[in-house]
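Before relying on records like the one below, remember that each one covers exactly one chain. Contacts with other chains, cofactors or solvent are not represented anywhere in the record.
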Amino acid sequence: MILDSFTKEYIIEKRLFAYIPFYIARYEKEIVSEKDINAAVKDLEYFRDEMYKLHEQGELGDIEIVDLMGFVNTIITHISDGNSVEERLVNIMGGTVIETESERLMREAREDVFEIMDAINNGADTLEALEELGYKKDVAKAVLKKMQKVV
């Protein structure tokens, strides 16, 4: 692939910003294995610093720099898949760890289940009692059914 011959300096010099996430993908093996990510860190810091310089010089607009950093963080989040280096790498670009829609739904479902379990532990032992506390009927019913199998 032609991208293999692009240096980070060339990408910045020629303003080929769209290639930055692909450049960072070169470090996939290191990021996945969580070993020796120093080169990836240095390159991310280089891109970040250069983008800030270009932003200060007016060559990169506010929206462009935010989008570019978001694209880089998206590829990092995808590659790292929640491992221990993800937050460190994402923080370099000044972002937060991205939560996909499916991850958000799963997190919310877990939170619902934990809340229902807490309500049950505090005496709400029927579907009606859980509904009165504001829990969704289908979720409450599923939790109660599951707990009956466990008990």
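The chain has a mean pLDDT of 81.
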